Amino acid sequence: MLGLKLATDPRWVNIVESNIEEILTDHAWCEQKAASNAISLVTYNSELEELVTEMLIIAKEELDHLQLVHNLIKSKGLTLGRERKDHYVNELFKFMKKDGSRKDALCDRLLFSAMIEARSCERFKVLSENIKDVELATFYRDLMISEAGHYTTFLGFARKYADNINVDKRWKEWIEFETSIITNYGKQETIHG
């Protein structure tokens, strides 16, 4: 369903399990950034009522996820660390087209967002199926379902607001680019790392 070409090696979970505090901290900041992304889409596209309505829902869900992760961190006696850079997302951001019409830029921003949600969903699936901690397995299964919904929402809006862009062609370009960079990741105890 997600269209990703390379699956995460399940052995990545062994790295994650070596430092649960790190993965949870990174995850918390990923949720904060996802909420900020949805708010940015509202800010720059306030005239698009349907988009604004859905992005506000997503922003709230992402903040709710941040709170869930923070609660989990506290319940495990861990500490929310400082914000982490997400090199994977930064590489995707550089691939995003920023020229053309406002609608073209919006379309690519939505595809960028869909790609992040797709990979996050895939990583959550790997965690839910391979992590030994039963509480975390259930937690990541639930979040996987939510991320899949966000992925389809972003992709749907890209198709709706595409002006001069062939969305299917551009999405294939996103998939190819993501495939070319994901091999550099999956070696750290971070959601995308």
UniProtKB/TrEMBL annotation:
<dbReference type="GO" id="GO:0045301">
    <property type="term" value="F:tRNA 2-(methylsulfanyl)-N(6)-isopentenyladenosine(37) hydroxylase activity"/>
</dbReference>
<dbReference type="InterPro" id="IPR009078">
    <property type="entry name" value="Ferritin-like_SF"/>
</dbReference>
<dbReference type="GO" id="GO:0006400">
    <property type="term" value="P:tRNA modification"/>
</dbReference>
<protein>
    <submittedName>
        <fullName>tRNA-(Ms[2]io[6]A)-hydroxylase</fullName>
    </submittedName>
</protein>
<dbReference type="InterPro" id="IPR012347">
    <property type="entry name" value="Ferritin-like"/>
</dbReference>
<dbReference type="InterPro" id="IPR010386">
    <property type="entry name" value="tRNA-Hydrxlase_MiaE"/>
</dbReference>
<dbReference type="Pfam" id="PF06175">
    <property type="entry name" value="MiaE"/>
</dbReference>
